[in-house]
């Protein structure tokens, strides 16, 4: 979480007139966030990893530290079709939308942060949906690269291969790439032959070279 977000959260906490305007929660791996939390509040992921999945358990998007989920699934009438699931222990902040918007009306930098975050999330989801136009092997590489770039450290960014996070096992990999596990295994073997992917024991590494 960057310094600007830390300052915003501290300011919101100190200035709130109602304890429900800013609340906190922790999710453990495998837990599902109840959508009712997003009825009046938006979510800021302080730490950890979440993913958005549909009713067919297809993973649509990952969220990491500093990301937000602003729109309410109820407003979009998708509260029964989509859910957020925890991949790594997540520390979450819920901020009342009306409180934040009123607060940010007098702080241009806060509104700018919100708009930038919302646009970034929207763009990320568009790219996630566009990947389905790619052939299966390219889709796997693209999928793994996008996630690794969100979770990598500065040191890892200089390497030739990214190590795929442990929480993304083969089952989730298939769900994220929108394919069967059998197809995933076959494609991983083909990608290994071209050095785009490496597998060592239970770990998977993907090339850092953009496809």
TrEMBL record:
Keywords: Activator
Taxonomic superkingdom: Bacteria
Protein name in the entry: Crp/Fnr family transcriptional regulator
């Amino acid at each position: 979480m960057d310094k600007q977000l830390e300052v915003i959260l501290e300011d919101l906490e100190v200035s709130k007139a109602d304890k429900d305007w800013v609340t906190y929660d922790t999710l453990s791996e495998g837990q599902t966030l109840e959508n009712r939390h997003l009825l009046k509040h938006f979510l800021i992921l302080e730490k950890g990893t979440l993913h958005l999945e549909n009713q067919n358990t297809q993973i649509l998007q990952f969220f990491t530290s500093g990301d937000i989920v602003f729109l309410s699934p109820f407003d979009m009438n998708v509260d029964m079709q989509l859910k957020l699931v925890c991949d790594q222990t997540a520390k979450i902040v819920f901020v009342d939308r009306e409180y934040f918007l009123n607060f940010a009306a007098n702080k241009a930098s806060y509104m700018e942060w919100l708009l930038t975050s919302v646009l970034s999330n929207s763009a990320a989801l568009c790219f996630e949906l566009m990947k389905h136009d790619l052939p299966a092997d390219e889709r796997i590489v693209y999928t793994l690269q996008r996630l690794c770039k969100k979770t990598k450290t500065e040191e890892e960014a200089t390497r030739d291969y990214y190590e795929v996070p442990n929480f993304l096992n083969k089952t989730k990999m298939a769900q994220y790439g929108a394919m069967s596990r059998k197809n995933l295994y076959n494609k991983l073997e083909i990608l290994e032959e071209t050095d785009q992917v490496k597998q060592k024991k239970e770990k998977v590494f993907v090339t850092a070279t953009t496809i």
